[in-house]
Structure formats: structure tokens, C-alpha cells
Amino acid sequence: MNILSIQSHVAYGHVGNASAVFPMQRLGVEVWPIHTVQFSNHTGYGAWRGRVFDGPAVEDLVAGIRERGVLGSCDGVLSGYMGSADIGTAILGAVAAVRAENPRALYACDPVIGDTGRGVYVRSGIAEFMADRAVPAADILTPNQFELDLLTGLTSSTLADAKRAVAALQARGPRVVLVTSLATDATPADAIDMLAGEGGTFWRVRTPRLDLSVNGAGDCIAALFLVHYARTRSAALALGMAAASVHGILRRTLAEGSREILTVAAQDEFVAPTETFPVETV
Fold this sequence. Notes:
This protein is of the alpha/beta class. Helix content is 40%, strand content 22%. It has 9 helices and 12 strands.
């Protein structure tokens, strides 16, 4: 399997491509990473160095890959943090180029816009680009709960509301929607849910809530879900496998007291999670 991954990158730590590429490689996937930004570290530290690339820079790299004659062997495109709306346009151009060579290729979009407690943290125009152009183009969409509500204009305080919001997104294009972190009135205080919808059916995985605050877990989940879905074509199976791996990584990170997720040190969780969780039809 070959995946073109277009998103942010950090030299130190694990967010964006630095969180997504290695897990996919560990699962035996060949990854072609293109960085939309290159920072010294993730912005959660409050200070960082580096630069945001522009759309033409991304387009130039995609053109170079096309010239190698390999786009027909690309099985999927994964996008995350975009940095600017023109980078988003370049990503959709890459998706179109891949689909022209391989119509079965999947486009998985992690619509990075913001989060509960922080609000919107991307540049002006990104949220509108996600809603108007990225959502309709995606086969797979992986919002968090804040992004689910923002993109739909709905609320997801109950499971029924969350399912309604997922269905609203699917009506705009994506066949599969994965809500990567969900807390409804049915979620116990010591747990966190993930919800996936496909073909009118919804599945939930519930894992223990862990007392840690790290960056990059969502990037990892999106990558794992794409690979498992591409292999199984089952949102339920992909949900269960991705949830188990990410919980294992985060549990190990908490045990070690690490500020960064232990992408490398706990890598066996990607291929053989130490704990699995039931996937319930809801």
C-alpha cells in the first residue's frame, strides 16, 4: 500500500506527519510525506521556529511524484493541518491527480480547525475551506467533537445528536465519518468515546479516559483509521483497531510521564495492541 500524506511536520516531537508517517510505515505501508509546515516543535509549547509553506510548494512536489509515473499505485491521500487555504487547494489538486490515475484511491481528510477549550486555532479562511471544499471531496472525514459541531452547525451533546451531525456530514460527501473524541450525556466521566458512521450504520468504541494532555493523537488516529479502512473496507473494523492502538500508545505515554506521545518507544501497539475494546452498533 502507498499513501500520500500531506500535512504539518515538526523536527522535535510527534504531530502531523511526525505522528502519522511512522505508524503507517510500522503497518507495512509505503508513505510519501509532503509537509505543509516545518516547525521545530508543535505550537502547544508556546514558542517554535520554522515556516509555513505555500500551495505552489506542495504542487511542485506532487508534480515531481507524478513525473516518476507512480500516482497510479497510490492507494490513498491523507491530509491534516493545512496552514493556509491555498495549501488546501493544492491538496485537492493532488487528490484529483491521484484519482485520475487510480479511481479507487481514498481521500481521508482530518479537518484540523480547533478543539474544545481552545476554539478555532487555524488561520482565517481554513475553516471555510474545510466546510466548503474539503468535506465534499473526502471519502473519509475524521473530525473531533468540536470540529463536528462547527462543520455542521449542530450540537452533539447526546448520542442521537452526534449521529445526526455525522449523517449531515455524510450527506455532503464523505462515505465514512469518524469522530475521534466524543463525550455525550451517555459517556461516563471516566471514559471517552469514538464514533464511526458508514452506510447508515453507526459504531462506538469506549475507552478509559486518561489524565494526560498531549498533541498528535488525532493525527495518529486518522492515519491508522485510513490504513485499516483501506485494507478491510469496514469502518467498524478500522474503528476498533485504531482505537486500541491509540489507547495503548497514550496509556504508555502516561505511564512514562512523557510530554510527547511515545510513537517510537510504544510502536508495538500499532501492530499488536495490548488491549482491545468492544465495537458496539449504536
